[in-house]
Amino acid sequence: MTAKPHPLQRLLNYGRQYRQQIWQASTFSIINTILDLAPPWLVGVAVDILVQQQNSSIAKFGVKDVVQQFVVLSIATVIIWVFESLSQYIYDRLWRNLAQNIQHNLRLEAYNHLQELELAYFEDSSTGGLMSILNDDINQLEDFLNGGANEIIQITTSLIILIGGALFMLPLSITIAAMLPMPFILWGSFIYQNRLESRYADVRDKVGNLSARLANNISGITTIKSYTAEDYENGRLRAESDAYRKSNAKAIALSAAFIPVIRMLVLAGFTALLFMGGVAAYQGRISIGNYSVLLVLVQRLLWPLVSLGEIFDHYQRAMASTNRVMNLLDTPINITTGHIRLPIEKVRGEVSLEHVTFAYNSGEVIIRDLSLHIPAGKTIAIVGATGSGKSTLVKLLLRLYDITSGHITIDEIDIKELDLYDLRRSIGLVSQDVFLFHGTVAENIAYGSFDTKEDEIIKAAKIAEAHDFIMRLPQKYETIVGERGQKLSGGQRQRIAIARAVLKNPPILILDEATSAVDNETEAAIQRSLERITINRTTIAIAHRLSTIRGADCIYVMERGKLVESGTHEELLHKNGIYTNLWSVQSGLS
After folding, report:
1. How many domains does the chain have?
2. Which residues cross the membrane (predicted)?
3. Closest residue by Cα to residue 104 from 144, 147, 139, 128
4. Rounded to whole angstroms, what are the CA distances from 299 to 264, 270, 290, 293, 363?
5. 511, 477: one domain
6. By the 8 A CB rule, do 509 and 541 touch?
7. For residues 232 and 229, what is the distance between their CA atoms, to the nearest angstrom?
8. What's the pLDDT score for residue 407?
9. CA distances from 332 to 7, 76, 114 (A)
10. Are residues 449 and 573 in the same domain?
């Protein structure tokens, strides 16, 4: 098994498209660091002027008067300060905009990839966990790019300047003594971040579990209340939150120990320079000005190393999040689009299934060697007991899953060869589990037909017998339906779903238990609208209530993934088989 690259390498590979922005931001970070380290040098020059006077470093450029030397130094100070402030403004904007761009594009790319994944992936994943990746993990990357990347560049630049300046100004023995703690600081930092890596990976997993629990409970709040399970769910949430807290505590225990250790190492280097450099200046081996510069410079450069703990903390959080986001992006898309285009206006609607077998990843076979032909424009119905495989056929037709063997064709074209957009655009689905988005009634009817005019929306609602109840709503077509349409009744949601299908005007219509969860009056209204919209349209009705499909051109009975009976309503009753038994039970004859 090939090992995955380090998360930083994965992030850098992804960041190649932002190479120019990264170089610009990094360049101004380096410029700002150099200019920010100028004050210690200015202090050293000022001391040099006072001590050396006509022999100072500025006097070597022809400015002998001490007052004039301070004028030159003051002008240089103003110029350096202005450019240092300007460079900070530029790098800050560049890094923050880069963070926003990467966050924005990465979230969109991850979401678009998520939409391309097959239905099985969502059935194996929690909504809260996916939300945690798209929101929290990508925000962690943003936080790191906002400040952490710049701090790493500035500390690295500072160390190079410090080491170079020390070698230039100090005897080798003093330089070695002052820099001796440096390898231990860097070595300790890498050991620290390696140990922290696994702990933050566990933190990200725990926050995903917590998000999943919260999303699940909020979605199921009606069930929680109706079963008085508030205390039980509080306990489950407490367990998830406590696991997250304990996971964070393990990471904190390690990160908190880092700074005190680094402080002691920094103290050792600074003390060595203070003593040995002072003795060297007293003995005349280095100038007092250089000694002053180095004291301030080391103070400015060594102490920021203490912040390495916080930087690595942000870094490891970001790397753990990077792994989760990149793992999502690396998830293979198993259902890929075909290359044959089939414009909706050219679809006749002839559907054929030839020796179709389908099994889930678990190996459980749901459909077994099933063959079925549906002529264009005809209405067929599929009935059977729960678990017989009826609704699975719908998912296979839409290629939400791919069949294990056999062929499914539309107008004699294998659906695997068809462009996915064209395939799904040609099929309208009205299911028992209607999903309405948080928005207005009009927006939900026009979903998928986004450029539809208001009069077309109203016309579709009238065909679906939804117009009358919509006009009784507080804001009529502009009424907000609530999340998942919770402000509407089941029958109202169903009729809006039918209006949505009417507006889509697909050549093939699938009705998956479209009336099973409504009352008799609503069922009658829905049935009237369905009779109108199925005319001259290939219609596949998956039904539990047999009374709703009596007029189908052909009715198929499924049992354990196979078609075991077929015929019209009257023909099936005469066969005295499974359908007859179902009809007897539902009509009260048995």
Report:
1. 3
2. 70-91, 159-192, 251-276, 288-309
3. 139
4. 14, 7, 14, 10, 66
5. no
6. no
7. 5
8. 92
9. 18, 59, 10
10. no
What confidence tens digit (pLDDT) does each residue in 530-579 have?
A: 777 777 889 888 877 777 787 788 888 888 888 888 888 888 888 888 88
Comparing CA positions, the residue from 41, 25, 26 lying closest to residue 300 is: 41
26 phi and psi, to 5 degrees? -65, -40
Residue 5, CA atoms < 13 Å, CB-side half-sphere: 11
What are the tens digits of pLDDT across the range 34-71?
A: 888 777 777 767 777 777 777 766 777 777 777 887 88
User: Is there a single domain that holds both residue 260 and residue 234?
Assistant: yes
| Residue 5 belongs to a domain | no
> Is residue 470 one of the residues assigned to a domain?
yes
The CA distance from 172 to 185, in Å, is 20
Angle between helix axes 490-504 and 520-533 (nearest 10 degrees) is 0
**Domain CATH code at residue 516:** 3.40.50.300
How many angstroms separate the CA atoms of 143 and 145, rounded?
A: 6
Burial of 146 (0-12, 13-18, 19+ CB in 10 A): middle
Separation between Cα atoms, residue 432 and residue 452, nearest integer Å: 25
Contact between residue 505 and residue 457 where contact means Cβ atoms under 8 Å apart: no
All residue ranges of the chain with pLDDT < 50 are: 1, 590
Which of 503, 525, 560 terminates a domain? The answer is 503
Q: Are residues 464 and 518 in the same domain?
A: no
* CA–CA separation, 522 and 494 (whole Å): 9
Same domain, 482 and 551: no
> What's the DSSP call for residue 269?
H
Sheet holding 351-359, edge to edge: 365-374, 351-359, 405-410, 413-414
Cα–chain center distance at 269? 45
pLDDT at residue 1, as a whole number: 45
Residue of 464, 482, 473, 457 lying closest to 522 (CA atoms)? 464
Q: Which residues contact 576 (CB under 8 A, 6 or more apart)?
A: none
Same domain, 261 and 320: yes
6 in a structural domain: no
Residue 339, in any domain of the structure: no
Shared domain check, 260 and 226: yes
The residue among 184, 160, 316, 324 whose CA lies nearest residue 250 is 316
Residue 453 sits in which domain range? 436-503
CATH number at residue 98: 1.20.1560.10
Domain edge (last residue) among 456, 476, 503:
503
Whether residues 133 and 188 share a domain: the answer is yes
Q: How far apart are CA 64 and CA 505, in angstroms?
A: 91
